[in-house]
Structure formats: structure tokens, C-alpha cells
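User: Can you predict the 3D structure for this chain?
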Amino acid sequence: MTPAIEKALDDVRGAWRFRWFAIAAASVVAAAGWTVVFALPDRYQSTASVFVDTRTPLKPALKDLTVEQDVDAQINYVRQSLLARPELEKIARETGVLPDSVTNERERERILSMLSDRIVLSVSSAGTQGDERSTAGTMYTIIYQDSDPERSTKVVKTLLDTFIEHVLGGKREGSENVQKFLGARLKDYEQRLSAAEDRIAAFKKQNLGLMPSEQGGFFAQLQSEADAAKKANTDLSVALSRKEELTHQLHGDMAVSAAGSSAPSMGPQGISNGGDTLSRIQETQAKLDELLLRFTDKHPDVISMQETLAELKKRRATELENLRHGDASAVAASGAGNNPVYQSIQLELNKVDVEIAALRREAAQHEDTVADLRKRLNTAPQVEAEFQQLNRDYAVNKAEYTALLENYQKARLGEQADNAGSMRFEVVEPPQEPVAPVWPRRNHLIAEIWLAALAVGAGLAYGLHRLRPVVNSVRGLSELTSFPVLGAVSVAFPSRQQFLFRRRLWRFSAATLCLVIALGTVLYLSWSGMRLVLGPLVKL
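Assistant: Here is the predicted structure, written as C-alpha cells:
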């Protein structure tokens, strides 16, 4: 046998001497503990759970169309406000936890502190499965314990109603406050816009003719008009050059030669339609040829016709010379007007004359405008700057008004969405009156007290043994005296000692059995009391 085991057996033998003290102590502790357990007031627990889903089908459909509110933050705020002193006092008075007869401040604080400690508000993520979709939300659980089951249920129901009312009411109140604020700001900016429009209209009337045009500001308009005048003068110079060239072509040798060689148009029976010199020369030449067929060169008629022809040719030469120098009367006389070349050059020249006249008018108009703008050079920039300032003020007010109007429409749409169900509350577990207490757990406490009583008795016996020790073995005596033990004398009547030991063991076992029976009896009484409470409810 090892020394440790032998020493443990010595301690057991020593504590055996005080077994009745242990039994008595265990009995007293068990009786006292069980009395306290049965004296503890019952505490009933009521529970309610509500599922909050802020991601309904309207949520994605109304994205960017409504004013977003942080519903989760609002719910957390409501959850914390439920445990605040003002709300707790209101709930306590409504449910009877805090009677009106309590006027002592310290007692009132004690009751409210106890109410706050017994209320448990827990939050957990939850999901629900539907026929067509699955949604994720938040589960809020409210737990409260009270000695009165009816009162515990009433407290939980009041907390649940307050929670839902404050969340929905707070969201609705927030939306109404937003609409009220935005509506007031809209009226203010409407007045500002109206005043800005009136100022712009009055400024335009006052500075008529000095306002910036669609082409830009004053300096841009001045530059544009100067560029237009310069371009018109350039085009006019080009047109004058074209006219000079066309005039030179019209009076040049080519046109004169074409006019001199062109034949007149003949009418019926060979009669000339023209009365110009060239036509007369051709007629005279034809008559001369006819006379020469009948007469000789010496015939008086032939000589006369030859003299007439020479005179007409001399006149024709004079007309061509005058045509080359630009004589307008020579055109009809020479028959140049019937020449296609001469006609085309004259047509182009007429077009250039029209173009030159138009360009001169355009250049003059632009130069007059430039001169007029230069006269207003000292006043127009100031007018333009004031007008731009008025436009900037109007643009700022209009932008603010547009943004406020958009937010106001979003707030109204958000309120309508709330009424249509943009946030869903579903009471998963409504508060019900508890039928059995959740505390104290008497059966567990009774068993634990019984074990603790046995431990106290064993500890008392061991402690008395340590206070009044005895030697139960040769080894213990040798260790105690530090002297060697030469021998040991056994008992004189061992059978009698064994009989006495067995009788003592039976008595101790009977006493221990009494403690076990007491434990069973107490557990039975506790269970019977529970059945008395639950029995009628089970039958119902």
C-alpha cells in the first residue's frame, strides 16, 4: 500500500469518529437550504418576438426615388429609448409595477432599476422563406420576468406595442417633418425666384439695346461685327476686281472681234431683222452683188451702191473703235448685243454689279454697328456684368429650388411607400401568460443543496479530526514520534469489535438513507406543487 493511500485511510478512520456530527450538520444544512428554496418567490417569464423586414419588394423599386431613411438606426434608437428612465417609468405605471402609492424617491429608483435589470431586449439576424422569394430581416426579442405572471405578460405586451408604435410613428413623424421643412424652403425659394425674374425683367427694360445678344457678350458682339465688316470689305474688294476683269474682257479684242464677225439674224424672205450698221452693210453688199449680175462696174447704180458700201464700212470701223473704248451707244449700233460671247460677259458683269451693291450695303451696316458699339464701350460692359450677376443669382435660386422640389417629391413618395408597406412588422411570438415559473429551478437547487450538505458534513468531520487527531496505524505512530515501533498489540476480542463496527456502519447507513429519503420526499413535494399548478392548465 502506498503512503498516500495509507494516509487517506487514516484520515477516513479519524473522521469516522465524528460521523454523527457530520450527519447532524448535513441534516441542518439541507433543511435550512430547502426551507430557503421553498421560500424563494416564483418568477414568471414572458417573451415576445417581432420580425422586422426593411427590404420589402418596394425597396429596390423605389431606389433613388425616395428620401432614404436609416430605419436600422431608428430601430436601435427606439430599442435604447425603451430602457431610458422616462419610458421605463411610463411603462411601470401603466403595468402596475410602480404603484401610485410609491412616493419615496429611493424606492421608486429601486423599482425602476429592478425593472430595467429584468427586461432583456435582444437582436438577431433572421430569414423567412416565402413561396417565391426569401427575405432577410432582423428578429427583436423582448423578455421580462416578474413574480406575477399576468403582470409579466402585460409588461412585455406594453413594450412590444411601444416598440412598434415608436418605430412606425417615428418614421412617419420623420417623413412629415422632412416634408414640412422642404415645403417651407420651397415657398421661400419660389419667392426668391419670382423676385429674381422681376429684377431681370426690369433690368432688361431699363437697359434696352445694351443687353448681350445671342452671339455673346458686348466684346464678343463687337469683335463679331468687326470681323463681319472686315469680311464684307474683303468680299467687296474681290467683287470689284472681278468687275474690272469682266469690263476689260467686255471691251477687249476678243469680244469686239466676236461682235464684228457676228451675222445678223434674218427674217422671212431674207429680210434682216436688225437696223444696225453691220446689217445694213450686209444688205448693201447683197444688193451690190445683185446689181453686178445685171450691170457692169461703170453703171451709175453700181457706183452709187459701192460708195454707200464704203461709207457703211467706214462707219462700222468707227463703231467698233467706240465699242472698244466702252461707248454704250455703240453696242446697239454695232449689233454686239446679239453676240453670245458678249452677252455672257455682260451677264456676269451685271451679276457682279448686284453683288457689289449688296456687299457695300452689308459692309456699311456692319461698320455702322461697330461704330454704335464703340460709342457704348463705356456703359455696355457694366450693364453686361450686372446682367450676368442677375442671371447667376437666378440660376443659383433655380438650382436650389429644383433640388428642393425633387427632394420634396421623394419625401412624399416615401410616405406613400410607407403607407403601402415599405417596412414589414410581423409578430412571430406574441406575449402569452406563463403557466410555470422559470425561476427558481427548485429541483436542481434541492439536489445541489443536498450535495452541498453532504460536503459540509464531510468537511466538518474532517475538520474535527484535524483538531482532535488520533493515531490509527503503526506507520502513523512512527511518523508522529519519529521512533521506531517495535510491535503492535491487537484487540482482545476481534469478533466483538467487528460486530460493533458493523452495527455502527448500519446505523450510519440508516442515517444516510434518511437523508436520501428526505431528498426524494422534498423533490416529490416540489414536483407535486408544480403539478398542482400545471394540472388544470393541461386539462384545459
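The mean pLDDT is 75. The CA atoms of residues 106 and 112 lie 10 Å apart.
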